[in-house]
C-alpha cells in the first residue's frame, strides 16, 4: 500500500507539470526539452503499468477470488456474438484436426495388421494368412475407403475455413474491434494471475496490439491483423479454460482433504497411510495445489506427523507392558 501511495503522489506531481506544458508547440522546443518530455511520458506509462499490476495482484489474492475473476473474464469473451462465432469455428477446426490425426494413426495400424497377415502366410508352421492376391485386393479396398474418409474430412475443413473467413467480416467494425482488443487484454490479465508473473506484461502486450492495429489500418491490412488477433484470443482462451479446469480440480481436492482431516485425533495408522497416499495423489494430479492452498496442505502434513508419533508411542507402551519409556 505504501508503494501504491508513493506512485499516486508522483503521478499528481507529473500531472501538474504536464498541465503547465499544455499548449506548447513541441516543434519549437530545444532537443533537451523534447527528450525530457519523452522521458516524462515514458515514466507515466511505467507508473500506470505498476498501478494496474498492484491493483490486480492485491484485489485477487485467494484461489477462489482468482478463479471467479478468471471465469468471469472468460464468460465475457463469449458474450460478444461475432467473437464467439469465430472462436467456435476455430474450436471445430481443432476437433477436426484431432479427428484427422487419429484416423491417420488408425490407417497406419490397419495397414500394418494387414501386412502381418500376408507375412504370416510365408511361415510354414502358420497355416493362416493371406496370399499376395488376397492382400492386394484387401489393401485396394482399404485404401479406397480411407481415401474417401480423408476426402470427407478435408471437405469439412475447407468449409470451416470458409466459414471462418466469412465470420471475420463481422468483426471489421469499430465496436467489434474494441471488444476483441478488450477480450485479449482481459485474457492476458487472467493468464498473469494463473502464471503468477512477477511484473506487468499485459499492458505492454496491449500497447503492442494497438500499434499493430494502427499500422494495419494505415496499410490496408486490417483484415490480416484481425485474423491474427482472433487466433491469438482462441489460444489464450484455451489456456485459460485449461487453467480453470485445474482450479476446479484443486478445489475438489481441497474439499476432499478437508473431509478426511476433520477428526485427526481419531485417525489410526491405516487412515494415516491413506492420507499420505492421498497427498501423493494430489501432488501428481494437481502440482500447484501445495502452493495455492499452503495452509491446508501443511495442516495435512502436520496431522500425518502427529498421527505417526502417536502410533509409535502407543506401540512403545504396548511393548513395555503399559509402561511408557
Considering the chains and any ligands shown, give keywords for the structure:
single chain; 325 residues; mainly alpha
Distance between the termini: 54 Å
- Which regions contain 5 or more consecutive residues with pLDDT less than 50? 1-8, 17-22
Mean pLDDT, to the nearest integer, reads 82
Question: Helix fraction?
Answer: over 70%
* Helix-strand pattern: HHHHHHHHHHH
Beta-strand content bin: under 5%
The profile of the biggest β sheet is: none
Number of contiguous helices: 11
Spatial shape: flat
Strand tally is: 0
What does this protein structure show overall?
The structure is a single chain. The chain has 325 residues and is an all-alpha fold. It has eleven helices and no strands. Helix 8 packs antiparallel against helix 9 (269-285). The chain starts with a helix and ends in a 6-residue tail after the last helix. The model is unreliable at 1-8 and 17-22 (pLDDT under 50).
Amino acid at each position: 500500500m505504501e508503494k501504491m501511495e508513493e506512485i499516486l503522489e508522483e503521478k499528481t506531481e507529473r500531472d501538474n507539470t504536464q498541465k503547465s506544458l499544455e499548449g506548447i508547440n513541441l516543434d519549437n522546443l530545444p532537443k533537451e526539452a523534447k527528450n525530457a518530455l519523452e522521458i516524462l511520458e515514458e515514466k507515466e506509462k511505467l507508473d500506470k503499468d505498476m498501478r494496474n499490476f498492484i491493483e490486480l495482484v492485491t484485489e485477487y489474492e485467494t484461489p477462489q477470488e482468482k478463479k471467479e475473476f478468471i471465469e468471469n473474464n472468460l464468460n465475457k469473451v463469449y458474450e460478444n456474438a461475432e467473437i464467439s462465432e469465430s472462436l467456435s469455428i476455430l474450436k471445430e477446426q481443432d476437433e477436426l484436426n484431432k479427428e484427422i490425426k487419429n484416423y491417420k494413426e488408425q490407417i497406419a495400424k490397419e495397414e500394418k495388421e494387414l501386412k502381418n497377415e500376408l507375412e504370416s502366410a510365408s511361415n510354414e508352421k502358420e497355416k493362416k494368412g493371406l496370399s499376395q492376391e488376397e492382400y492386394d485386393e484387401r489393401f485396394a479396398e482399404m485404401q479406397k475407403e480411407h481415401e474417401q474418409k480423408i476426402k470427407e474430412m478435408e471437405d469439412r475443413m475447407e468449409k470451416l475455413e470458409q466459414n471462418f473467413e466469412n465470420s471475420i467480416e463481422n468483426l471489421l467494425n469499430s465496436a467489434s474491434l474494441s471488444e476483441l482488443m478488450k477480450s485479449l487484454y482481459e485474457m492476458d490479465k487472467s493468464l498473469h494471475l494463473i502464471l503468477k508473473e512477477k511484473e506487468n506484461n499485459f499492458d505492454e502486450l496491449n500497447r503492442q496490439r494497438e500499434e499493430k492495429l494502427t499500422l494495419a489500418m494505415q496499410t490496408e491490412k486490417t483484415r490480416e491483423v484481425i485474423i491474427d488477433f482472433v487466433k491469438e484470443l482462441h489460444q489464450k482462451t484455451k489456456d485459460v479454460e485449461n487453467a480453470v479446469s485445474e482450479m476446479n480440480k484443486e478445489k475438489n481436492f481441497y474439499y476432499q482433504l478437508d473431509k478426511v482431516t476433520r477428526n485427526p485425533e481419531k485417525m489410526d495408522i491405516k487412515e494415516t497411510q491413506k492420507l499420505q497416499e492421498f497427498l501423493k495423489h494430489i501432488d501428481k494430479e494437481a502440482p500447484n495445489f501445495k502452493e495455492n492452498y499452503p495452509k491446508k496442505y501443511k495442516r495435512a502434513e502436520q496431522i500425518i506427523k502427529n498421527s505417526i508419533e502417536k502410533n509409535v508411542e502407543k506401540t512403545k507402551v504396548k511393548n513395555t507392558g503399559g509402561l511408557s519409556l
